[in-house]
Structures
1.
Amino acid sequence: MLKKFFRKKLDGEQKPQSPVPTGLWIKCENCKALHFRGELESNLMVCPRCGYHFPVPAKDRLYMLFDKGTFEELDIDLEPQDILEFVDRKPYSQRLKEAQEKTGLKDAVINAKGKLDGKDVLISCFDFRFMGGSMGSVVGEKITRNIERAAEERIPFICISASGGARMQEGIISLMQMAKTSAALALLEERGVPYISVLTHPTMGGVSASFAFLGDVIIAEPKALIGFAGPRVIEQTIRQKLPKGFQRSEFLLEHGLIDMVVERKDLKNTLSQLVELLS
Amino acid sequence: MQTLFEFEKKVDKLRKKIEELKSMGKFDPVVVEEIEKKFQKKIKEFYGNLSPWDRVQIARHPDRPHTIDYINNVFTDFIELHGDRHYGDGKAIIAGFAKFSGIPVCVIGQEKGRDTKEKIARNFGMPLPEDYRKALRVMKLAEKFRKPIITLVDTPGAFPGIEAEEHGQSEAIARNLLEMAKLKVPVVSVVIGEGGSGGALAISVANKLLMLENAIYSVISPEGCAAILWQSQDKVKEATEALKLTSRDLLKLGIIDGIIPEPLEGAHRDYETTFKNFKEHVLRALDELLGLTPEELVKQRYEKFRKIGV
């Protein structure tokens, strides 16, 4: 009962907040072509010229995947806390406030339940704009709750990652979220509920090295940077230039680390088919 | 403020001088004793006021007891097992079976290596996916044969390199987190030196997590944190303080279950006492767990991690 009370119904018809940079024209980061915002949006934020996949805010992503008007956001009551009272060049509490104002989100992940081609699914979706999609205690808790919910209700779980890794400002507590989320996945395994992990640009560090790489099926968007250590850290450690395409989706596919690279326009269909086949 | 290493050098010099004075027998014993008392007081003062950054230095001290030292001195009948059965044999993680206080156990630990040659061979204690997969394979053996698992954590972090990424470093770490959560035998992990991020966590999803007094455990190295958040290596001390990575901080935060005390001047100054304390604390932790059923062990471990955070 109480759970129901905390769930906020979202209006499927409501237009999502505008993605990435504001303004009428958007420049492709890859081929530098200028695109009219509307044109880019109707192409799912993929450059029509070169196929570059722009980062997508979490809510827009949910609208792209769920059937119109079918999803509700879950666990919206969770607020991040500055447990360590962490201050670097700015207090963490201030960083949180700024990120919240910028994105309209409370933290870097949204949990939602809805229908994907008529089938019930639970989705956790990262928003990279919120402190680089970093995982602190709220992100870890939300992912864990969605996994536990999926196990309990026997509904397939989909996680869409976009994260720089663990959130340093929550220190060891963010590190422990890796263990917490991964341990929860044992529940899904036990009940035979499918978990599909979608890796988008970028998926690194503590997110990569926990639930993101534990999907029954792992999908990546084209050319996404995916890995444990960042390319700069690797270069500094081994003092070598990295090979071209290193840690990109296609490189991971070639090395047997993921199941497939799927373009954004095909993502919903692929997920739908997998859910159908595995459930 | 002087650094730990400067202080250690000074202490050694003074200690030698005092010994000399004593052996010469020319001075009034009362005076010598007075000098020695003052000297001891100074040492106590220094080690009683260690900053988190000092502890980082002790945790990384080149003479600190390593996994190999624990295996050789605290365990008996050790047999090392090799290979992940997929690709290779990581050298940064040692895994095998041994007796601990007469009980057959599985022991797994990260080893940094002592001299230059060994450090290189051990990849400075930075595991590759092969290391993690070997560790998991041996932990699964322990589960099969119902032996408790003791893991020793001492790594700057999982290796950031081309082959590590090619072989699936992320997957290897992630898999260990999931599989360790399911283990039906007791798992006790001890951070003996450096607990470097995911690379440390991947062998420490334990029922009981202990830390040596001067060990550290952190989401990122102080250097890495300073570089990213402060964009300056000069801020490494600030980063160290902010990260709350000492054993006392982590006990307060409810992340670890206990602290294994070290000799006053650190584990590296007195191995025997360190091993004695280690044995006593790990045995106590094991004792508490040996009474639990496999299901209770899994549940206890799950709940321990489940409650961390909000």
2.
Amino acid sequence: MRGKKTARRLSLLIALAMVLSVFTGCGGNSNSGGGGNTGSGGGAEETITIGVLTPTSGTEAFYGKDMLQSYELAVDEINAAGGVLGRKLSLYPADDGCDANMASLAAEKIISMDCDFVVGGYCSGATIPALQLFYDADLLMLISAANSTQITALGLEQSFMLNSPGTHALLTLIDLCKSLDVKKAALIHQGDAYTKDLSDLCEAGLPEAGIEIATVQVMDKGAPDVSAIVTAIRNSGADFVYWCGYHADGSNVIKQLRQGGYTGYIAVGDGSASPELITACGEAGEGVYVTSPPFVEFAVGGEKFVADYNAKFNMNPGNYATLAYDSIYVLKAAIEQADSIETEAVRDAVQNISYQGLSGLIKFTQDRELEVSNFIILQIADGTFDLVIID
Amino acid sequence: MLALGGVCVFSFSEVVLQQLINGLILGSFYALVALGYSMVYGIIKLLNFAHGDIYMIGAFACLSVFGVISKEIPGLAGIGLSIAAAMVLAGIIGYLVQRVAYRPMLEAPRLSLLITAIGVSLVIYNTVMLMTNGQPLFFFSGIDNSAGFSFGNIRITYVQIFMLALSATTMLALSFFISRTMMGKAMRAIALDQDACRLMGINVNKIIGSTFIIGSMLAAIAGGMACVYYGNVQYNMGYTIGIKAFTSAVIGGIGSMPGAMLGGLLLGLLEAIGTQVMTSMGMSGSAWKDVFAFGILIVMLILRPNGLMGKTDVERM
């Protein structure tokens, strides 16, 4: 235990040193948009600087980078078309590492760089501490991917969630369970903000839809052996297992469920909705359902986005790319509507916006959540995701 | 086997037996890693906190080597060869760590040595994190991990049997090495009295180096097994198992080889049984398994403060 504490302290120190080095060595090298303006440093009065809070290191780096690239694509498009209110946009990325401590440091960095707005937010556990800091600094944040209802519960008026919250995932999950005639469901989460939140929602919501909860299990992060959990689940008589966590551990859970002789249905939450899940699971993944965020392949107008993204970054966009891309355009629309970059005016404009994006209709409730669910159901078949339509 | 979507009927004895199998496999991982902790502690009284990271390096080495050779040598032979290569690499790194970080500190207070070990752990952990970008790597053995025997509802896969056999053979070989060879004898002697050993002409530094090599090799076997069994390898995989293996070593009586093996198996079994017991009581079993396992362990340590096989003031190897 002492080792863990020391490790945490030390990593905090290292992170601090890294932040300091950014302050001292910053200048022009933090440019990430194609516009050529850095927005940091001084003198860039004309640019609108958008802080980007995503994990670009750690286990979730893949998504963080994907989101960052989508922001860059949108910003470049907007700048090429003349910017917003005649001003160019620029991005200021900060790495939250999907970690609460790192996220606080990243938020401080964004605040001290005098950014005008913030986008990003992938891991809810990292987004929540940052949100409070942004609120105190009077910064508006459009949260592109993180969707914990705990974010709503914070009640911070300057943050909007562009992704459907877990409550929407539950509605989609219930549809799926009913179509499969599920009697008893088992839930597995990892004890952190996002996965436990999703699990708690299902634990409360599924019984209301007539589906019994057989058992709820927790897989410790970094402890890959879940055979005991598998046996406990089989013994509980569950005919449906819902994995609430991320794909790296999820592949492990799926494989061990099948190895351990579980033959019922398996579904995974949006944290596991990644093509990597398919490769990592191999054979064991066949037939697994995913309650997924809007995949770009299934979006209206998705081909152009995929082609542009591919041309720029030489790779395919990931799951949260459309949400990230839409975030910038929502911000643009709101700024134009408000005709100002004052936080309060833009906030009010976002509250009343109705924008048809790649990820679906973006329109907010009074709780600043998405009004209409954007979740879809996918199933792994022959090594690819198939869209499942439930009437 | 139950039908898709059907409800399964497990008998009580089947559940217990299945959980014992689960626990035994988890425990054999703990035991292999615990042996390295215990050997090093026995000989120089150092809690080598970098040991879990050596396990992680073993897993990465196994994955990398198999990635290169699997085209020519697929299947079990390739896996065996990869684990052997991982052992060599882990052995070299274990020796280097000892030579560079620990040997100059042997005369220093034990607490300084402990901090050095934590430092080494952080260096390895963060280096691998930077090298892999923090991403998990996936291992495809080409072997069907689900194939195995079924007795009623009880399942044991061929891979599990292979791993149990591998860890049992390793532990037997180690016991033989410690009790029957000259070098084993030298290790036991150093554990008793280093200065006397030096006077008797034993090359103490060489023996300490060998201890690190052997301990690291054992960790690499466990790492290689994890690679094959779980299929994903990540920079942080050594942390939890490091803590659990350390616990196992203490339960068994740190410094004692049979104790480390017993402690590892016991902890694995307690975790599996704990998961089942708490789940059967209607709680989230896996969330409470550590409370269950460590609760029992605390009681055990109160009753036997030196661990199950540990004795005060007798030889430690």
